[in-house]
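Q: Can I borrow your eye for a moment on a structure tokenisation matter? Would you mind producing a protein record, from residues through to fold? Write it directly below this note and I will take it from there.
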Amino acid sequence: GAGGWSPLESNEQQWLQVDLGDRVEIVAVATQGRYGSSDWVTSYTLMFSDTGRNWKQYRQDDTIWVFTGNSNADSVVHHKLLHSMKARFLRFVPLKWNVGGRIGLRVEVFGCSYKSDIADFDGRSSLLYRFNQKLMSTFKDVVSLKFKSMQGDGVLFHGEGQRGDYITLELQKGKLSLHIDLGDSNLHFSNSHTSVTLGSLLDDQHWHSVLIERFNKQVNFTVDRHTQHFRTKGDSDHLDIDYELSFGGIPVPGKPGTFQRKNFHGCIENLYYNGVNIIDLAKRR
């Protein structure tokens, strides 16, 4: 139809903001110029947000992605996103526009509803997942979650056993550290401990994804598409955890091997431990 968005001033400080009404999964965008005019945008970037206050720029290959815009007022230029975005708010930020005209945009956003289970942690709370038996002995573990943190330090999950085994995922000064010890009767405790750290500035109040895959001593630790492959120390292949796993903090002082750590302050989304939806279980008590 007639018209389209055209700001009063055509400069690089302009943007068109869309409120999608709810957090959704955005998979593609499309643009046109302003109808019946010489106003169109030739390149732009995208920013997204859950709140409308904290904004993140859409990136590909670790660089801020510049989208190719239009070459006339009416042709539609469609871009499928390499990585989908989960957001409520979206901003189109024009970088360049038709030399003989002004900024002019008509836009369309493509996607689908995004259902998720989210738990809020206030820095004093934790979520306990108790096993059906006294001891859980595993040679394979998969833990996946997304988190958004209000502070640079905090335990995301922790489990430990009486034989010295433990696994802890925690934020330390905005970086994510995975500590794991499969236990080993032949070695002193400190010699079988393995720690790996990934990421930085993860306390920026944006969502970050985590995937931990362990098979025997081989571990893949992924944070926001960056993966560290490592092998645990010691001879044991099994992780022996007693009674429970704790998410969001350590509720009581731990056994030897756990030290005083801060609880997590923020949100955890879609938390899965070996295929079990932990937050959904908590919702259903």
